[in-house]
Protein backbone atom coordinates (compact mmCIF):
# COMPACT_ATOMS: atom_id res chain seq x y z
CA UNK A 1 0.00 0.00 0.00
CA UNK A 2 1.19 3.57 -0.68
CA UNK A 3 2.20 5.79 2.23
CA UNK A 4 -0.73 7.98 3.15
CA UNK A 5 0.22 11.53 4.09
CA UNK A 6 -1.94 13.15 6.79
CA UNK A 7 -4.77 15.07 5.15
CA UNK A 8 -6.73 17.44 7.37
CA UNK A 9 -10.03 18.86 6.20
CA UNK A 10 -12.41 21.32 7.78
CA UNK A 11 -16.01 20.90 6.70
CA UNK A 12 -18.76 23.46 7.04
CA UNK A 13 -22.45 23.23 6.12
CA UNK A 14 -23.11 24.03 2.47
CA UNK A 15 -26.18 26.14 1.82
CA UNK A 16 -27.62 26.73 -1.63
CA UNK A 17 -27.70 30.48 -2.10
CA UNK A 18 -30.94 31.84 -3.61
CA UNK A 19 -30.44 34.34 -6.41
CA UNK A 20 -33.35 36.77 -6.58
CA UNK A 21 -36.55 36.20 -8.54
CA UNK A 22 -37.40 35.23 -12.07
CA UNK A 23 -34.79 36.15 -14.62
CA UNK A 24 -35.02 37.59 -18.11
CA UNK A 25 -34.59 34.18 -19.69
CA UNK A 26 -37.78 32.84 -18.12
CA UNK A 27 -36.02 30.50 -15.69
CA UNK A 28 -36.52 30.90 -11.95
CA UNK A 29 -32.99 30.34 -10.69
CA UNK A 30 -34.08 30.41 -7.02
CA UNK A 31 -35.94 27.11 -7.03
CA UNK A 32 -33.10 24.63 -7.38
CA UNK A 33 -32.21 23.05 -4.04
CA UNK A 34 -31.01 19.88 -5.73
CA UNK A 35 -31.07 18.27 -9.15
CA UNK A 36 -32.32 14.78 -9.79
CA UNK A 37 -33.10 12.50 -12.71
CA UNK A 38 -35.27 9.42 -12.83
CA UNK A 39 -33.54 6.13 -13.48
CA UNK A 40 -30.77 4.14 -11.85
CA UNK A 41 -30.60 5.15 -8.20
CA UNK A 42 -26.81 5.13 -8.38
CA UNK A 43 -26.88 8.19 -10.62
CA UNK A 44 -30.33 9.73 -10.04
CA UNK A 45 -29.10 12.61 -7.86
CA UNK A 46 -25.65 13.02 -9.39
CA UNK A 47 -26.77 16.29 -10.96
CA UNK A 48 -26.84 17.92 -7.52
CA UNK A 49 -23.08 18.40 -7.80
CA UNK A 50 -23.73 20.93 -10.56
CA UNK A 51 -25.07 23.34 -7.93
CA UNK A 52 -21.41 23.95 -7.08
CA UNK A 53 -21.35 26.34 -10.04
CA UNK A 54 -23.58 28.78 -8.12
CA UNK A 55 -21.67 28.71 -4.81
CA UNK A 56 -20.36 32.21 -5.48
CA UNK A 57 -19.46 32.80 -1.83
CA UNK A 58 -16.36 30.70 -2.61
CA UNK A 59 -13.53 31.61 -4.98
CA UNK A 60 -13.12 27.98 -6.04
CA UNK A 61 -14.96 24.74 -5.32
CA UNK A 62 -13.46 21.27 -5.71
CA UNK A 63 -16.21 18.76 -6.49
CA UNK A 64 -15.31 15.09 -6.03
CA UNK A 65 -17.55 12.12 -6.70
CA UNK A 66 -18.27 10.08 -3.58
CA UNK A 67 -17.20 6.85 -5.30
CA UNK A 68 -13.55 7.80 -5.01
CA UNK A 69 -10.74 7.56 -2.51
CA UNK A 70 -8.20 10.30 -1.82
CA UNK A 71 -4.64 9.01 -1.48
CA UNK A 72 -2.80 12.34 -1.38
CA UNK A 73 -3.71 15.94 -0.68
CA UNK A 74 -5.34 17.83 -3.55
CA UNK A 75 -4.80 21.25 -1.98
CA UNK A 76 -2.46 22.42 -4.75
CA UNK A 77 -5.40 22.45 -7.15
CA UNK A 78 -6.64 25.62 -5.49
CA UNK A 79 -3.41 27.35 -6.55
CA UNK A 80 -4.05 26.76 -10.26
CA UNK A 81 -4.76 29.81 -12.43
CA UNK A 82 -8.40 30.85 -12.53
CA UNK A 83 -10.45 28.91 -15.05
CA UNK A 84 -14.16 28.20 -15.27
CA UNK A 85 -13.51 24.46 -14.95
CA UNK A 86 -10.45 22.27 -14.52
CA UNK A 87 -10.93 18.51 -14.83
CA UNK A 88 -9.06 15.34 -15.78
CA UNK A 89 -9.22 13.92 -19.27
CA UNK A 90 -11.56 10.93 -19.60
CA UNK A 91 -8.59 9.04 -20.99
CA UNK A 92 -10.41 5.75 -21.66
CA UNK A 93 -12.68 7.40 -24.25
CA UNK A 94 -11.62 8.01 -27.87
CA UNK A 95 -12.60 11.69 -27.97
CA UNK A 96 -9.50 13.72 -27.04
CA UNK A 97 -11.43 16.63 -25.50
CA UNK A 98 -13.77 14.61 -23.26
CA UNK A 99 -13.37 15.35 -19.56
CA UNK A 100 -14.52 13.44 -16.50
CA UNK A 101 -16.94 15.02 -14.04
CA UNK A 102 -15.58 12.91 -11.17
CA UNK A 103 -13.08 15.68 -10.32
CA UNK A 104 -14.12 19.25 -11.05
CA UNK A 105 -12.29 22.36 -9.92
CA UNK A 106 -14.90 25.06 -10.42
CA UNK A 107 -14.76 28.84 -10.32
CA UNK A 108 -18.38 29.54 -9.35
CA UNK A 109 -20.37 32.18 -11.17
CA UNK A 110 -24.01 32.61 -12.12
CA UNK A 111 -22.94 32.90 -15.75
CA UNK A 112 -21.38 29.43 -15.69
CA UNK A 113 -24.24 27.99 -13.64
CA UNK A 114 -26.74 29.14 -16.25
CA UNK A 115 -24.64 27.63 -19.04
CA UNK A 116 -24.57 24.29 -17.24
CA UNK A 117 -28.25 24.36 -16.36
CA UNK A 118 -29.25 25.17 -19.93
CA UNK A 119 -27.14 22.28 -21.20
CA UNK A 120 -28.95 20.01 -18.75
CA UNK A 121 -32.31 21.43 -19.78
CA UNK A 122 -31.48 20.83 -23.46
CA UNK A 123 -30.99 17.14 -22.69
CA UNK A 124 -34.09 16.83 -20.53
CA UNK A 125 -36.13 15.11 -23.26
CA UNK A 126 -33.61 12.28 -23.53
CA UNK A 127 -34.63 8.99 -21.94
CA UNK A 128 -31.35 8.89 -20.03
CA UNK A 129 -28.39 11.18 -19.59
CA UNK A 130 -25.67 11.84 -17.05
CA UNK A 131 -23.89 14.76 -15.44
CA UNK A 132 -20.70 13.97 -17.35
CA UNK A 133 -22.51 14.48 -20.65
CA UNK A 134 -23.85 17.83 -19.47
CA UNK A 135 -20.39 18.98 -18.37
CA UNK A 136 -18.92 17.99 -21.72
CA UNK A 137 -21.68 19.76 -23.64
CA UNK A 138 -20.37 22.96 -22.07
CA UNK A 139 -16.68 22.43 -21.34
CA UNK A 140 -15.24 19.85 -23.74
CA UNK A 141 -12.39 21.69 -25.43
CA UNK A 142 -12.64 24.58 -22.94
CA UNK A 143 -11.67 23.03 -19.61
CA UNK A 144 -8.19 23.16 -18.14
CA UNK A 145 -6.93 19.56 -18.15
CA UNK A 146 -5.49 18.32 -14.86
CA UNK A 147 -2.22 16.41 -14.85
CA UNK A 148 -2.49 12.63 -15.13
CA UNK A 149 -1.15 11.98 -11.64
CA UNK A 150 -4.27 13.52 -10.14
CA UNK A 151 -6.41 10.48 -10.78
CA UNK A 152 -6.93 7.02 -12.23
CA UNK A 153 -9.99 4.75 -12.40
CA UNK A 154 -9.79 1.52 -10.41
CA UNK A 155 -10.74 -0.48 -13.50
CA UNK A 156 -7.35 0.39 -15.00
CA UNK A 157 -5.79 -2.23 -12.72
CA UNK A 158 -7.99 -4.90 -14.37
CA UNK A 159 -6.89 -4.20 -17.94
CA UNK A 160 -4.30 -6.11 -19.97
CA UNK A 161 -3.47 -3.07 -22.08
CA UNK A 162 -2.89 0.36 -20.56
CA UNK A 163 -2.11 2.30 -23.74
CA UNK A 164 -5.00 4.73 -23.19
CA UNK A 165 -3.66 5.70 -19.78
CA UNK A 166 0.07 5.71 -20.47
CA UNK A 167 2.06 8.40 -22.23
CA UNK A 168 4.17 7.45 -25.24
CA UNK A 169 7.19 5.38 -24.17
CA UNK A 170 5.82 4.86 -20.65
CA UNK A 171 5.39 1.38 -19.20
CA UNK A 172 2.71 0.25 -16.78
CA UNK A 173 3.83 -0.16 -13.18
CA UNK A 174 0.88 -0.60 -10.78
CA UNK A 175 3.03 0.10 -7.72
CA UNK A 176 4.25 3.40 -9.15
CA UNK A 177 0.76 4.42 -10.27
CA UNK A 178 -0.70 3.70 -6.85
CA UNK A 179 2.11 5.61 -5.13
CA UNK A 180 1.88 8.66 -7.39
CA UNK A 181 -1.87 8.96 -7.91
CA UNK A 182 -3.74 11.42 -5.72
CA UNK A 183 -7.27 10.10 -6.25
CA UNK A 184 -8.73 6.80 -7.45
CA UNK A 185 -12.25 6.72 -8.89
CA UNK A 186 -13.99 3.37 -8.39
CA UNK A 187 -15.36 2.03 -11.68
CA UNK A 188 -15.45 -1.75 -11.97
CA UNK A 189 -18.83 -2.73 -13.37
CA UNK A 190 -20.45 -5.16 -12.57
CA UNK A 191 -18.85 -4.79 -9.13
CA UNK A 192 -20.99 -2.30 -7.19
CA UNK A 193 -19.68 0.89 -5.65
CA UNK A 194 -17.32 0.29 -2.73
CA UNK A 195 -19.83 0.99 0.04
CA UNK A 196 -22.03 -1.91 -1.12
CA UNK A 197 -21.29 -5.53 -0.21
CA UNK A 198 -20.02 -7.65 -3.08
CA UNK A 199 -21.01 -11.25 -3.73
CA UNK A 200 -18.34 -13.88 -4.12
CA UNK A 201 -19.43 -14.44 -7.72
CA UNK A 202 -19.11 -10.77 -8.68
CA UNK A 203 -15.79 -10.49 -6.85
CA UNK A 204 -14.28 -13.37 -8.81
CA UNK A 205 -15.67 -12.00 -12.07
CA UNK A 206 -14.07 -8.61 -11.56
CA UNK A 207 -10.85 -9.15 -9.58
CA UNK A 208 -7.70 -8.58 -11.69
CA UNK A 209 -5.99 -11.75 -12.90
CA UNK A 210 -2.35 -12.35 -12.00
CA UNK A 211 0.03 -12.17 -14.96
CA UNK A 212 2.44 -14.97 -15.81
CA UNK A 213 5.99 -13.64 -15.80
CA UNK A 214 7.99 -14.60 -18.94
CA UNK A 215 10.55 -17.30 -18.26
CA UNK A 216 9.41 -17.78 -14.69
CA UNK A 217 6.99 -19.93 -12.74
CA UNK A 218 6.10 -16.92 -10.60
CA UNK A 219 3.07 -14.74 -11.25
CA UNK A 220 2.86 -10.98 -11.07
CA UNK A 221 -0.13 -10.18 -8.85
CA UNK A 222 0.59 -6.49 -8.26
CA UNK A 223 -2.52 -5.35 -10.15
CA UNK A 224 -4.71 -7.65 -8.09
CA UNK A 225 -3.03 -6.63 -4.84
CA UNK A 226 -3.38 -2.91 -5.58
CA UNK A 227 -7.03 -3.30 -6.58
CA UNK A 228 -7.88 -5.35 -3.49
CA UNK A 229 -6.07 -2.86 -1.27
CA UNK A 230 -8.09 0.06 -2.67
CA UNK A 231 -11.40 -1.57 -1.79
CA UNK A 232 -10.18 -2.79 1.60
CA UNK A 233 -8.76 0.62 2.48
CA UNK A 234 -12.01 2.34 1.49
CA UNK A 235 -14.06 -0.10 3.58
CA UNK A 236 -11.85 0.31 6.65
CA UNK A 237 -11.92 4.10 6.53
CA UNK A 238 -15.62 4.51 5.71
Polypeptide structure, described:
- The protein is α/β, with parallel strands linked by helices and 238 residues long.
- The protein has a domain at 151-237.
- The chain is 22% helix and 11% strand.
- It contains 5 helices and 9 strands.
- It has helices at 110-122, 131-139, 174-180, 200-206, 222-237; strands at 61-64, 68-70, 85-87, 103-106, 144-145, 152-153, 183-185, 211-212, 219-220.
- It has a 4-stranded mixed beta sheet with strand order 1-4-3-5, with no helix packed on it. The protein has a 3-stranded mixed beta sheet with strand order 2-7-6, with no helix packed on it.
- Strand 8 and strand 9 (219-220) form a beta hairpin.
- The two termini are 17 Å apart.
- The relative contact order is 0.14.
Molecular shape: globular
| N-end to C-end Cα span | 17 Å
Mean pLDDT: 85
Estimated helix fraction: 10-25%
**Structural class of the helices, strands and pairings?**
alpha/beta
User: What's the arrangement of strands in the largest beta sheet?
Assistant: 1-4-3-5
Would you identify the regions where 5 or more consecutive residues have pLDDT less than 50? 9-22, 30-44
Q: Rg to the nearest angstrom?
A: 20 Å
Task: Give the biggest sheet.
Answer: 4 strands, mixed
SSE order: EEEEHHEEHEHEEH
Count of extended strands: 9
Strand composition percent: 5-15%
**Multimeric organization:** single chain
Number of helices: 5
InterPro entries: GNT1/Glycosyltrans_8 (IPR050587), Nucleotide-diphossugar_trans (IPR029044)
Protein name: Nucleotide-diphospho-sugar transferase
Amino acid sequence: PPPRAPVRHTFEPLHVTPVGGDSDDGIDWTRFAYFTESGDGTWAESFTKLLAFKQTQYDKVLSLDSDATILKSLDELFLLPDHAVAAPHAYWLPEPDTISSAVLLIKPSMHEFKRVFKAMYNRSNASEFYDMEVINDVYAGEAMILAKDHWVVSGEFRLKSHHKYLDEGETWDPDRVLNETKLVHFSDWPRPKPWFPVTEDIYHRTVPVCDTMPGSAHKDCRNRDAWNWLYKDFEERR
